[in-house]
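Following up on my earlier message about KG4. Here are the inputs again, as you asked, copied directly from the submission form:
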Amino acid sequence: MPPSSRKPPPPPSSRRDDRAPVIVLGIESSCDETAAAVVRDRRVISSIVASQHDLHAEYGGVVPEIASRAHAERLVPIIDRALAEAKMTPRDIEGVAVTNRPGLIGALLVGVAGAKGLAWSLGVPLVGVDHLHAHLFAALLDADHADPSTLFPALGLVVSGGHTDLYRMESSIELERIGATIDDAAGEAFDKAAAMLGLGHPGGPQIETLAQSGNDRAHDFPISRLAKDSLDFSFSGVKTSLLYAIRGHPGPGGVFERDHTSLTDTQKSDLAASFQRAIAAALVLKVRRALDATDPVRSIIIGGGVIANTRIRAEVQAVGAERGIPVLMPPMRHCVDNAAMIAGLGEELIARGVRDDLSLAAAPTSRTGSR
Ligand code: KG4
Ligand code: ZN
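Thanks, got it. Here's what our run produced:
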């Protein structure tokens, strides 16, 4: 497929009035949530999310083929519901935005094909959106900032199931990745930790609940720093330490001494709380390091499923207070995957003249720079 032809985005505007609001339908199908939403002028008019967690539960993780099939079955009804909730018909839509990267390729293709068909049949602009950039945009939706341009340049932090990335943001549509995980993502570490403790998938919310009654100093799990000036993350060490704390060390033949069934509830809570502390500490360590190492920023913008975690939200908020800059974060419902963030970033791109054509391709990886 030929690369899609795009007009480059014009230089960022310093006045928000320079952009004309557009009614945009957003579509999200990169992993195990099928979602559609309508956004206008950075306000969420409707947002519908159909989670597939029940379909994947028995496998302990997302099964790509099951995800693609479920997206194909659900996409049109979910779009219909998003339009109905917005009290709109397809003719009211002035642009279509769709996650085209990163994600499971078969899952992405369902959304991209649906978005192309809709944009083509309605004769409205189509734009492909990077899911990770959209996680950051979620913090700007329904916000009270009369002029969001005053927040930039910003430091961005995305913490999700598949990614842990730091960005330098010149605007909401001009981003450069300055740090990334070298192994597991933080959300993936939460999910694996939950599996080790005998909890279900996704594990992050369950670890958070368990941690509430635990002693976060019961275990001294490692907080990865990497090289002195590194802005990258690593979560495999803390995960392995948790494994050994739960199961003991492997003997001959790789057989562990015990498993989670021999733990008391208190022991489980202490492990969850200590694990959560180590993950939060690793995240804020790199946020502080990035603030020290890069040119000054006016705000910290965070997003992604793991940002639904109350402790992590509070710790990043504390860094902002310490440095005297605001921390913008989405409400919990817009941290985990949703289409409002896709429609929001899509509206910003469309309003600034960015377009894709019908050769828009899906891609499994994110962009390290803008667009
Ligand atoms: O952003 P997201 O919905 O999907 C991806 O783009 O990956 O993130 C999902 C991840 C999962 O790993 C889930 O366990 C984690 O976010 N998560 C949490 C919490 N809620 C969701 N992790 C920690 N604490 C939470 N409250
Ligand atoms: Zn996500």
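One observation from looking it over: The chain is about 35% helix and 15% strand. Hope that helps, and feel free to reply on this thread.
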